[in-house]
Amino acid sequence: MALITISGYPSSGKSTRAAQIYDFFSSSLQSSDPSPQLKVKVISDDDLAVDRSSYDDSLQEKTARATLFTAITRHIARDTILIVDGMNYIKGFRYQLYCKAREAGVRVATVYVLATPDQCRKWNTERSDEKRYNRETCVFSSLSTVPSP
């Protein structure tokens, strides 16, 4: 049915937005005509046991993206609204997801979650240790601009 990719800075509220989208589609599908049985699924780094420190090193990040891509490939289907909650800031990776979705015959949407870098840093410090990004990662050295479509 659809692949929805969430993109934004670390600690910008991507998981919150993914949960809101999941709740919206889940409730909408329950209250609609029962003829097409659609599923809604969220795939996140937390679900795949990808550690947040994976984004501190390019080699570990490549492995994390491969893990995410494998999970997406496994779950993408015409009867599923698949919400991808991860960093997804690399334009080439989003294009790879787009190609996979088109190959599977599903629609594609990208949701950009915007928050100022200062707000993201603040939210990051308020997280528990296991959910917190490394300070250097949250400085946005690799994300100096808003992600481009």
Arithmetic mean pLDDT: 86
Fraction of residues in β-strands: 15-25%
What is the C-alpha radius of gyration, as a whole number of Å?
16 Å
Identify low-pLDDT runs.
Answer: 141-149
Order of helices and strands: EHEHEHEHH
Structural class: alpha/beta
Total beta strand runs:
4
Q: How many angstroms does the end-to-end distance come to?
A: 21 Å
Query: With helices defined by DSSP (H or I, 4 residues minimum), what is the helix count?
Result: 5
How would you sum up the major sheet? 4 strands, parallel
Q: State the shape.
A: globular
Largest sheet: spatial strand order:
2-3-1-4
In which range does the helix fraction lie?
A: 40-55%
Describe the structure.
With 149 residues, this protein is of the alpha/beta class. 42% of the residues lie in helices and 17% in strands. It has a four-stranded parallel sheet with strand order 2-3-1-4, sandwiched between helices. α2 (58-75) links the parallel β2 (39-44) and β3 (80-85). Mean pLDDT is 86; it is low at 141-149.
Short description:
The protein has helices spanning 14-31, 58-75, 91-104, 117-125, 135-138; strands at residues 2-8, 39-44, 80-85, 107-113. The protein has a four-stranded parallel sheet with strand order 2-3-1-4, with helices on both faces.
